[in-house]
Write a structure and sequence with these properties.
Blueprint: E1 2-7, E2 14-19, E3 22-26, H1 32-41, E4 51-53, H2 59-62, H3 65-72, E5 76-78, H4 80-84, H5 88-92, E6 95-97, E7 104-106, E8 109-115, E9 124-130, E10 133-138, H6 146-152, E11 157-160, H7 166-171, H8 176-183
Length: about 190
């Protein structure tokens, strides 16, 4: 299994996963143009993607999904609750419902979404199995409950986003309400939390 992080953070999140002929994205939060360019850097043609799995409805996870889906006829896999709170253009793209703990077989990869604590509608992370290999992709998450740790145990590849220094956040320029959101149990992991 091949896993490549194309982008992480408030500028856009996207992770490429490949096993044999099966190719997919976890999130498409960069512009479609940027995703196409970053895929080309790892010698992947965006038109070869089999699906895009969306973790939640925040813009930094869906920004390029609708354009990629329409341009290359790539289905989007998203929770119905998250879809309801997404842009109209994403709602009009080809999509399939996903739910926590319900595996989805896409080519040679089995993708199992699971619930995570984050301040969004029905936030998910993904466990992926292909043959004997197992990967886990966890992006926006406020803390690591035992249920999430259990999902990550035994993964051959683990992608987990931790994206801020607590002291820099506390003393930085962001408004207090945003600092509180980021530091909460439904915000984002700090670098120290890992």
């Amino acid at each position: 299994m091949r896993v490549c992080v194309l982008g992480s953070g408030s500028g856009g999140n996207s992770t490429y996963v490949e096993h044999g002929p099966t190719r997919l994205l976890i999130d498409a939060g960069l512009s479609a143009k940027e995703i196409v360019e970053r895929l080309a850097l790892i010698h992947v043609d965006a038109s070869s993607l089999d699906g895009i799995f969306i973790s939640h409805e925040h813009q930094d996870h869906i920004a390029g999904a609708d354009v990629l889906s329409r341009k290359f006829k790539i289905p989007i896999f998203i929770s119905p609750h998250a879809l309801q709170h997404s842009s109209v253009s994403l709602q009009e793209a080809t999509h399939y419902p996903i739910a926590a703990d319900v595996p989805v077989q896409l080519g040679f990869v089995t993708v199992t979404p699971f619930s995570v604590p984050h301040d969004s509608i029905d936030p998910l992370a993904f466990s992926l199995r292909a043959g004997a290999a197992r990967a886990c992709v966890v992006s926006d998450i406020g803390f690591l409950p035992e249920s999430v740790k259990e999902r990550m145990r035994g993964a051959d590849i683990l992608v987990i986003e931790s994206n801020h220094d607590l002291e820099m956040l506390r003393t930085g320029p962001y408004p207090w309400h945003l600092k509180q959101r980021v530091m909460s149990n439904y915000g984002h992991l700090s670098n120290e939390a890992i």
